[in-house]
Design a protein that fits this description.
Layout lengths: L3 H14 L5 H14 L5 H7 L4 H21 L5 H14 L11 H10 L10 H8 L7 H12 L2 E10 L2 E6 L5 E5 L11 E7 L9 E3 L4 E4 L3 H18 L7 H8 L5 H9 E5 L2 E5 L27
Parallel strand pairs: 3-5, 6-8
Antiparallel strand pairs: 1-2, 1-4, 2-3, 4-5, 4-6, 7-8
Length: 307
């Protein structure tokens, strides 16, 4: 029967060959692209402005993916996606108090590139990658879509500064990478960060990008998270064998269930400042999570706003 991504790509191709053109939908898409700046010199403006050049490329790609995702979401093949992400948005991104500690940058990346749907377990990102074959997309942009699709959240140890760049090392590993943090948070050595790193998008860039506002873990050490990840992987393996060589990457991208990492952020929230959000607790230790209850719902004190 083929994957959802293949079905969507074939439908786009068929519409492109059709003599019957939905002018209303076409105009709407043009208007969205125009309002978002993607049919102008938006990328040039990003690159010539205050943004780090590597970050600018990813901002442009994320905006393009959001527009494509919105158009694809209207197709019947994407109904499963709309249902899953819509339910998560209602649950974790409320429009009124208490405002969610899931930032827009975090949730958008999760919704586009981590949330799987359909029998073939696609993400909107994999559907976009298939769809770009039917458009006259610049190869460099398709390549960046691919890099974002491969990315995931992870727990990292702050290993000090390299000039204005932060050095991060994934827990339980030895390799350290230098990272630009667009949110402006420098942090301090020894902290545990829960973030999504994006690799250098081309050979002209030498550093990674922390693409979301950092979630900074308080009161817990690296070994606490190494132990937790081992426990979670063991539980997942008991349910079914993971058909991947990167078991840790699979867990951190998809979780044992679709809203696992969304739920963790909600339950672990402990405070924030403009440049960072603070969490505390271990995902599978309910007593360590300040907002975990019997049904794992989030009950913060007071009204807070996140971006």
């Amino acid at each position: 029967m083929g994957s959802v991504a293949n079905k969507i790509a074939k439908r786009i191709a068929a519409q492109g060959r059709s003599k019957v053109v939905d002018l209303a939908a076409w105009r709407e898409g043009k208007e969205i692209a125009h309002e978002s700046g993607l049919d102008t010199d938006y990328l040039k403006d990003l690159l010539s402005g205050d943004h780090d050049p590597c970050h600018a490329l990813y901002i442009f790609a994320q905006n393009a993916a959001s527009i494509l995702g919105e158009q694809i979401s209207a197709m019947r093949e994407a109904r499963g996606y709309v249902r899953i992400v819509g339910a998560a948005e209602d649950e974790y991104m409320p429009s009124g108090p208490p405002i969610s500690p899931l930032t827009a940058s975090y949730f958008t990346m999760w919704a586009l590139f981590d949330a799987r749907f359909g029998s073939s377990r696609e993400t909107m990102g994999t559907c976009i990658l298939h769809a770009t074959r039917e458009f006259d997309f610049p190869p460099w942009l398709s390549d960046i879509f691919g890099l974002i699709q491969k990315s995931r959240m992870g727990f990292y140890v702050h290993c000090g500064m390299d000039g204005e760049l932060v050095r991060l090392r994934e827990v339980g590993t030895e390799e350290t990478v230098t990272c630009h943090v667009p949110a402006g948070y420098a942090g301090r050595s020894g902290q545990i960060w829960f973030v999504r790193l994006l690799p250098p998008p081309n050979t002209l860039c030498q550093h990674h990008i922390v693409f979301i506002t950092p979630y900074v873990i308080q009161s817990y050490l690296e070994q606490d998270f190494v132990d937790y990840l081992e426990r979670e992987l063991a539980r997942m393996e008991l349910k079914r064998a993971l058909k991947t060589d990167d078991r840790l990457g699979y867990l951190l991208k998809y979780g044992p269930d679709i809203n696992h990492w969304n739920e963790y952020i909600m339950c672990a929230y402990s405070g924030h400042q403009r440049e960072a959000i603070f969490l505390t607790g271990i995902p599978d230790v309910q007593g360590s999570l300040p907002h975990a209850t019997g049904d794992k719902r989030y009950h913060p004190d007071g009204e807070t706003t996140f971006h």
